[in-house]
Amino acid sequence: MSDLPNCPSCGSEYTYEDASMFVCPECAHEWSATAELDQNETAKVYRDANGNTLVDGDSVTVIKDLKVKGSSLVVKVGTKVKSIRLVDGDHDIDCKIDGIGPMKLKSEFVKKI
């Protein structure tokens, strides 16, 4: 039994791999092998300190005093942050905090409201 995918055009099970492409001998359809991998890839799930799933637009509360790098400001425990935006990287929350301005936070230091 072959582990190659069936043809997306005609459903044939007789596909073969040619370099980085899959080819169907019955209908001559060709498609990228990387497209198959992209479909199987799952989206990253962002979670807060309690394990709740975060999505864009959520409101969160800071659970720990956070020093703002490069200044003497501190984001205090209990600070509410509205309309977060999730981004890739080490600091995965992009937001705007009243009195401080735009910031990036780690999801491990917030909890969902």
TrEMBL record:
<dbReference type="InterPro" id="IPR013988">
    <property type="entry name" value="YjdM_C"/>
</dbReference>
<dbReference type="Pfam" id="PF03831">
    <property type="entry name" value="YjdM"/>
</dbReference>
<comment type="similarity">
    <text>Belongs to the YjdM family.</text>
</comment>
<dbReference type="InterPro" id="IPR004624">
    <property type="entry name" value="YjdM"/>
</dbReference>
<dbReference type="Pfam" id="PF08274">
    <property type="entry name" value="Zn_Ribbon_YjdM"/>
</dbReference>
<feature type="domain" description="Protein YjdM N-terminal">
    <location>
        <begin position="4"/>
        <end position="32"/>
    </location>
</feature>
<feature type="domain" description="Protein YjdM C-terminal">
    <location>
        <begin position="47"/>
        <end position="112"/>
    </location>
</feature>
<dbReference type="InterPro" id="IPR013987">
    <property type="entry name" value="YjdM_N"/>
</dbReference>
<protein>
    <recommendedName>
        <fullName>Alkylphosphonate utilization operon protein PhnA</fullName>
    </recommendedName>
</protein>
